Each structure stands twice: as structure tokens, then as C-alpha cells.
Amino acid sequence: MSTDAIVLLKEDHKEMRRLFKAFQDAEEGPATKRQKLVDQILEALTVHTYLENEVMYPEVRRLLPDLEDDILESYEEHHVADVLCLELTRMDADDERFNAKTTVLIETVTHHVEEEEEEWFPKVREALGRKQLQEIGEKMIALRADAPRTPTEPKAIKKARDAVTA
């Protein structure tokens, strides 16, 4: 298994795309199936954004100050996703706006992922050596077990609050 931070984040992105597709395929299906998929999406996003906010972004910000604007934009995109995730935790799958809100979340995250993979990650990979990306990845792996799993956990709420006040 790779410890390269970018490889790890891309693996998360791949899993999110799989969950997004599964939700889109189930949009007209039973509410219980949609609810289960959204719960999985919320967990994947909560863990992923926590690792980026706590490890990847601060490290890149410290090591590559020229990417400050990219990082600040990423924090804001995470904040928008955090708000949608929190709202979805308070909804049932049979709520008339559940599918619409989930679709907006998927579109927002997909845009963010595309920017990261097409624009931001190549800059980071070029500027940081393999060793530095592996060190960042190792920190992310170590933190993953203790990462919040739902948007309502205190660590996840702190992450969302920090995005507003940072």
C-alpha cells in the first residue's frame, strides 16, 4: 500500500465517485437504500475532509506558500460540503429535498475533486519530493483511525467551525 499522500487522497476520491454513482443509480429506488448510501457518502467525506484539513492542507501551506490561494479555496469548498453534510444528517431519505440536496453535495464535491486532481495535485507533486509526500501520507494514515465518521462528531464540527473562523 502506498503512503504517498496524493495516492491516498485519490483512492478516497475513487471511493467517493463509486458512492456517488451508486446514489445516482438508486435515486428512484427505495428510501432505505438511498439513506444507506448517503450515510456512506457522509462517512467517506467526513473522514476525507478531516484528513485534508488536519494534515494535507496545513503541510502544503507550510511547505509551499505559493499555493496559499488554492488551499484557502479548498478550505471554503470543504466548508460548503460540511454544511450540506450536516443538513443531510437531519433529513430522512423520503424528505422531498433529500435527493436534491444530495445531488448538490455530489456536484460540489465532484468539482472540488476535479480541481484537486487536475490542477492542485500536479503542482504539489512537482514541488514536493516523493519523501515529503510519503511523510504527509504516513501522518494521514496514522490519523485516519481517529478521524470523525459523521459530520455531527465534535472533531468534525470543530473542523467546520475552524473553516469559518480561519
UniProtKB/TrEMBL annotation:
InterPro entries: Hemerythrin-like. Residues 144-166 are annotated as: Disordered. It holds the Pfam family Hemerythrin. Residues 5-124 form the Hemerythrin-like domain. It comes from the Bacteria. Residues 155-166 have a biased composition (Basic and acidic residues). This is Hemerythrin domain-containing protein. The lineage of its organism: Bacteria, Bacillati, Actinomycetota, Actinomycetes, Micromonosporales.
